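Task: sequence in, structure out. Protein: Oligosaccharide repeat unit polymerase.
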Amino acid sequence: MFSLLFVINFIAVILLSVNIARKSNIRFLVPTIPSIFIWSYFVFSYVGILALFFLWNDYRVSLGIDDKFKILELWVYSSLSLLLIVLTFYFLSNILNLKIDKNYREIKGSGQLNSTVKMGMFLLFVLSIGVVLIYISKIPSIPLLEQLKGASSEELALSRSEATNNFSGKLHWYRLFYSSVLTFLGYYTFSLSLKKPTLLNWSFFLITFAAASFTALMTTQKAPLVWFFIGLVSTYLITRKTQIKLKTAIILGGTTFTALLFMYRRFMGLEGRPIIDVIQSIFSRAFTGQIGPAYFYIEMFPRHEEYLLGRSFPNPAGIFPWETYSITTEVMNYMNPAMIEAGVVGSAPTVFWADMYANFGIGGIILSSILVGLILYLLQYCINKLDFNPFIIAYCSWLIVEAMTLSSTSLANFLLNVDLMFLTFVVIFMLFLNRQLVLKDPLKGLKSFNQKLIKFEEQK
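Result:
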């Protein structure tokens, strides 16, 4: 009976969330920041709890995720967060009347770019390639090439660690260009080619696509390439002003699944394993890989560690009076102490609310969920007010993918995000270059207001 009640309530939360979102003018087949976030939340931060509750995933059980009452607590927190987010969408849409367009056909604009903007985007691409070359020169080995040479799984894990978590320099500055900027440029060149299919535009896209695909794969991490493909599909749908159709879903699903099969067999040491084992590994990673670590966040805090009270938040240049607590590394060490002995710096990222729980308890979950709802909805609302030219479409697609990462990163990292700040600056600068933020008549609004005020006085 207890299990049946859990399943009923588990499904009820999904249906209630979808209903509230739809009443908030959000369409699940139209790629927007709120809609794709909800999809990703369902996949990475909710559905997998069912498998954890019934102990269907042997690997997660072996890690210690076997306490049903703690898993039930995990479901309560995940459900609370999801419902608060969609209720925030509802409040903004129906109470404050900040309506998001149901589809991109309702957005008007020329979508034209001048030559200055196009040259600026090309120079940004050249700069990104330069940074990629510098980064490659600073790492002992490129994990992707080591894998192709036949490195063992242990050697590959060490190479990946040296190129990412254990990188000696300031990795986030390199990642800004080799990941975020190149990805953004991939979306921009794709949209530009769709709008104006010239040989030059398609050549620029293919070069950018090759560079972005290589940098997404070079550390043998699987998610970046999948996110890149999802962003390209969003770019196509937004540029064409259409919604997700069955054919599109099948192509995206088939391409993604095939890519994951290849990457898991090559990068996870599963070449000799039956195909069913590889598929199980993919589903395990997809549905429980991100929400699973949240179980240990709940177990660690405050039972083994006091609430952090903000110590896990980024502390750029040490301006805040605390030493940053590397929560993802500490949780991984708690989950798998053997990694310390192996000299591998692991990481256990999870859904955004888990970090806030580790810092402030249940209050942190409530506050962060409301903030996420506000931020994601208002981002889409503001973007929809702009002229949808290729770099705005690229920015929207990049934000869609970035919002998806809230299923595996903290809210603080999302807000204090150098990549987000930099690309926002690039977009604003390009808007000025494209003469879209220059007021033709700065006094026009004041004149109109004065005329209405005079008319009102005359009527009195």
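Confidence is low (pLDDT under 50) at residues 438-450.
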